[in-house]
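Question: does this match?
>
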Amino acid sequence: MGKEIEAIKKVLRSDDILFLIWGYALTIGNLSHYLNEILFVPNRIHSILKAVELVIVIIAIGFTIYYFVKIKQKVISHDSLSVLFVWIAMVVSLSLTNVILFSKLHKVDFTLQHPLFMVITAFAIMITGIIYRYTLVIIGGVIFAALAYACCSLDLNDQMLLEAIGWFIALVIPGHILYLKKKH
């Protein structure tokens, strides 16, 4: 059992790059969205910030595909594959939630949609922590869920700020800790 846990920790330490890529991409994207909405900026800068949000996510998706196809293709563990499918299931769940909300409300209510998306995301974060046996990620998922609940009483812009904080706590901090442990 001890060798199995060490092997899992080794795989997790190699996946720290995904924690960092996605953590920073989503933190910066949500923070950029928040700042773009609360600051008075010219339309040109507003458009540039929107484009930056999109480009960051596209780069994160591209790197993730590259990572699994080229880097991990021969050494992908059962745990890494499980986590990949958890996040794919999360994206499908977010899409279905959007369709259900629209079919019932006949409009998109982003102030309702966003906290619901955060709750589903918090679940994926916690499951990731459980699969990898990494308590800090589990705690990050719980904090993400608490922030989702806090979002219920806020407008959408403030929800984006809380989500940015959530991504930083749930993925960036654990990603850096894993990276530092790997270096030592």
Summary: The chain has one domain: 2-183.
